[in-house]
Amino acid sequence: MSADSSQPGATGDRIRDLPVVEQPRERLARAGPRSLATAELVAIVVGTGARGQSALTLAQRLLGRFGLAGLAAASNEELCRVAGCGPAKAAQLRAAIELGHRLDAAADAPRRVSTPADAVALLGPEMILLEQEHLRVVLLSVRHDVLGVHELYKGSVSGSLVRVSEVFREAVRRNCPAILLAHNHPSGDPAPSADDVRITKRIVAAGRLLDIEVLDHVILARRGWISLRERGLGFG
User: Fold this and answer.
1) Domains: count for the chain
2) Are the CB atoms for 135 and 152 separated by under 8 Å?
3) pTM above 0.70, yes or no
4) Rounded distance, CA 60 to CA 127, Å?
5) If DSSP codes are grouped into helix, strand and coil, which group holds residue 134?
6) Residue 33 has what DSSP assignment?
7) Can you name the residues that pair with 226 across neighbouring β-strands?
8) Contact, 159 vs 192, CB < 8 A?
9) Domain region containing 96
């Protein structure tokens, strides 16, 4: 089903004026989501259209402007520049896309983190899209099976804010013998700062005292990722 003017709603027709059996929600319930075109799925997410356009028309305009992949990276402000897409609809879209990312990450993520690439597969799909810095601690078993992911900081990973005791608190509570650190660079550049290296060095030293292995510190960004252990930064 192509997104052209021949499709229902492309000229402002209301979806509810279509025969019930042709309405996207009814077809999804009857035949499943795979039976719907991408624009129809987006129309269900946004829920309603606006004056002079149906939800399907709005969905077609959003896809025409951003493409499906572009919707994943679009900010609230960018989405709201499309006529008929206000803050509520933008939030609905971003929430639906985020659920998809988390489902993909859960399905594809390795159960064991033995290499930096494993950590990237586990955390990268979500973290590279975050608009603020987040620092997360991956809790690992003795065989480096993933026992959980704990978010430690959001907004800044400044050395003046990171408390080493907090980094290990959940690992100590759950008796985890190893952890892996990961944080993102919203700028898109994964290059570590001097502060990143200093924080890592402090955490690695504390891990030795606590007998908790710090497997790595991985920095994730849109333009790639870096393992501080592989670079020999903070793990001397």
Assistant:
1) 2
2) yes
3) no
4) 28
5) strand
6) G
7) 219
8) no
9) 15-105
